[in-house]
Hints:
The protein is α+β, with helices and mostly antiparallel strands. The chain is built from four helices and nine strands.
Amino acid sequence: MFQRTTKEKLMFPALARQCRPGLVALLLTLILAPGCAAIGTWTTYWIKGDGPTGADLELLREQSAPYRQRGAGIIVGRAFLQFPENKEVRSFRGRIRMVPATLFAEHRLEKYVMKKNEFPPEIESQVKWVTRSDTEGRFVFRELPPGKYIIASEIAYVSNSDKAQMAIAWSEVELGEGETKQTFVSREIKPGIL
């Protein structure tokens, strides 16, 4: 289905051709990161490394095109793990990632997050927004175009055997034009499951 060989950048292509990739990432981090962490509008467009090729790549480009524009939509939420007896572990200043719910992203959600409890390698991402939660697990993404999104966060917790563990909570959100939606990025943790 999704082959892994392409090395094409879609983000600031002229700049990417003139500079080394590490320098581009550093410059973008210095320029964009301070404002983005607060409001969750850091958007990255790329396909490189282990991304799709051929017809799959064209389909991904087509499905991702509407997400390359700013919109007026807002997604607010809270990220947490839910344990038995209503115990909750919140994402504490954790990284919240969001991608358009393309066929490629849905495939990766199932393959990596649901089955392996791990994030897919980031080099496979095409369009992505990143922000951090506050101490209560709350986050906001602003200026979003309408569409369907996958939101995920890796959350640390201590198991019953006093071992540090990680689990990925996720949510899917459908956003209309100029709409504000609330979501819970969560995962139920049952004894012996993770």
